[in-house]
Design brief:
The complex is a heterodimer of chains A (about 350) and B (about 170).
Chain A (H helix, E strand, L loop, with lengths): L4 H14 L4 H38 L15 H11 L10 H19 L16 H8 L2 H12 L3 H32 L4 H6 L13 H18 L11 H4 L9 H26 L12 H9 L2 H20 L7 H29 L1
Chain B lengths: L4 H22 L3 H21 L3 H26 L11 H24 L15 H9 L7 H23 L2
Classes of the chains: A mainly alpha (about 350), B mainly alpha (about 170).
């Protein structure tokens, strides 16, 4: 299986040995390269996701979807991107200007910080924190602040109600998501993402013997809670268009609205990617113990393909759910979290602890 | 003296924290003050990352940014509106506040500069593993902290119950 460490090591020796740069400048250039790569990947993935979502939604509703720009409309999101970049950013009278401008950056920062710590393939992992899973939970909470500030600074009752709903929803569902991830941390005995992936080389967590039962329950809980955290249907009441026009980002226009749009799509990707990494073995290929030939064939598929393939399956689940269930009311939403999802995830955590101690 | 990259990062973080803290106190718009406080808290988390103590940085962000600041913002939502400004502080109060803060800063500086640090050399240079932190928090042996940990849990439980009691009171 191709190890991306070859590429990163090559760049490192090129800078250090061939060009003879001192340590400081080597690191500075590498940081900038990594940063540019992540920003580009973030934008490109979001464009692909927007196209995919529009197409899949169309098929769910027996439509064709975008089909004018390019073959099968594949250039549609690029055209939309150019349009949104050219649009005017309208400044709102009697709003809090400083916070209004600042808010989108918090949302996009929270999302990029999470995105940058994911292991995308073998050796393709920018920063491998010792506290991996905990880091992901911690920095994603920056987005909540951005949403709350946006709702308040627009000085509009719809945005305020949208932000309040969103804040309550994110704070509540974060607990279930974190407890679901903790279940796997108990099983793996580490929080480091690279080690969690490494331990799934033989068998993925959701197929791993008796531990598969709590792991699978945690997987389902994480998908539900993560889906709620991305503010998408059936949990999209912070931006319920029929009652709140567009929720907390009603007053934003041009690229500032584009930031919210981008962050929403990328959060969907990030939730799917975390679920892949923690429960579905990350970039590890599918191995079935005893089937040597099968395992050999699976090893030939590159790790990046495995990662993005599994993530795509999780994203498809999210879209499927979105177009299957009607929107919840706010009281139903909070009741569902605090009275059903939370107790189940706590009991599930206990179950996993029992499995780990008894085995 | 040669300047290293970590010193540059330290200076940027310090500027963020000092600037954020001063703006928090000076700003007359309460939600802006909360946002500046957020910048100071994120800068503090940056210090911990610089010290290679990622666990504390994660705690700092998830507790202060994800928890306490969200609560602040929620309570501000319910009590104030855009454009509302806090009343101007009187001239004499400003002067006394500046004197008090300068005295406090002077005292802190005096203590920090005269104090000797015998244990500074013994600080772990590599990152402490999560397992070590978890075991010392949950262990019952010498230099392990299960009892304080549980005491704090009971205190927080008492706070939650008290909060519910006050909220339920007709």
């Amino acid at each position: 299986m191709f190890d991306f460490k070859v590429v990163t090591d090559w760049i490192d020796t090129l800078l250090r040995v061939q060009l003879g740069l001192p340590n400081f400048w080597t690191l500075a250039i590498e940081f900038i390269l990594v940063g540019v790569a992540f920003l580009a990947a973030y934008a490109v993935l979001a464009l692909i996701l927007i196209y995919v979502e529009r197409k899949i939604c169309a098929f769910f509703q027996c439509r064709i979807g975008p089909n004018r720009v390019g073959k099968w409309g594949i250039l549609q999101s690029i055209a939309d991107m150019i349009k949104i970049l050219l649009k005017e950013i309208i400044s709102i009278d009697r709003s809090d200007k400083v916070l209004f401008v600042l808010a989108p950056f918090f949302v996009i920062m929270g999302s990029i910080l999470t995105f940058a710590a994911l292991p995308f393939g073998k050796g393709l992992h920018a920063i491998d924190f010792n506290i991996g899973v905990f880091y992901l939970i911690a920095v994603s909470s920056l987005g909540i602040i951005g949403i709350l500030l946006a709702g308040w600074s627009s000085n509009n009752k719809y945005t305020l109600i949208g932000a309040m709903r969103s804040g309550a929803q994110l704070v509540s569902y974060e607990l279930s998501a974190a407890l679901a991830l903790m279940t796997v941390v108990v099983f793996a005995g580490t929080m480091q993402l690279s080690q969690i992936v490494e331990k799934q080389a033989e068998v993925w967590n959701i197929f791993n013997g008796i531990a598969a039962i709590p792991a699978f329950i945690a997987f389902v809980i994480y998908l539900i809670a993560g889906h709620a955290e991305t503010n998408r249907g059936p949990f999209d009441l912070p931006e319920a268009e029929s009652e709140l026009t567009a929720g907390y980002h009603t007053e934003y226009s041009g690229i500032t609205f584009g930031f919210y749009y981008l962050a929403e799509y990328m959060n969907m990707f990030i939730v799917a990617a975390i679920a892949t990494t923690v429960f579905l073995g990350g970039w590890q290929p599918l191995h079935i113990s005893g089937w040597e030939g099968f395992n050999q064939v699976m090893d030939y598929i590159p790790s990046v393909v495995w990662f993005f393939g599994k993530t795509a399956v999780c994203i498809f689940f999210a879209l499927w759910v979105r177009w299957t269930f009607p929107r919840l009311r706010i009281d139903q939403l909070l009741k569902f979290e605090w009275k059903i999802l939370m107790p189940i995830s706590l009991i599930n955590l206990l179950l996993m602890a029992l499995v780990v101690t008894l085995l | 003296m040669e300047i290293t990259a970590s010193q540059i990062i330290f200076c940027i973080l310090s500027a963020l924290i000092v600037g954020g803290s001063i703006m928090t106190v000076v700003s007359r718009n309460i939600l802006r003050a909360a946002t500046y406080l957020l910048l100071a808290l994120i800068g503090t988390a940056g210090y911990y990352v610089l010290l290679n103590y990622h666990f504390l940085a994660g705690i700092q962000i998830s507790v202060y940014v994800g928890g306490i600041l969200v609560l602040f913002v929620f309570s501000i939502f319910l009590t104030s509106q855009v454009g509302e400004k806090m009343p101007k502080v009187s001239w004499s109060k400003t002067v006394f506040a500046i004197i008090a803060s300068l005295l406090g800063a002077g005292l802190c500086l005096f203590v920090l500069l005269t104090q000797s640090y015998p244990y500074a050399e013994q600080v772990a240079q590599t990152e402490i593993s999560m397992q070590a932190i978890g075991l010392s928090l949950m262990g019952t042996e010498r230099f392990q902290y299960l009892l304080p940990f549980e005491a704090i849990s009971i205190l927080l439980l008492a706070c939650i119950i008290a909060g519910i009691l006050i909220a339920r009171k007709k």
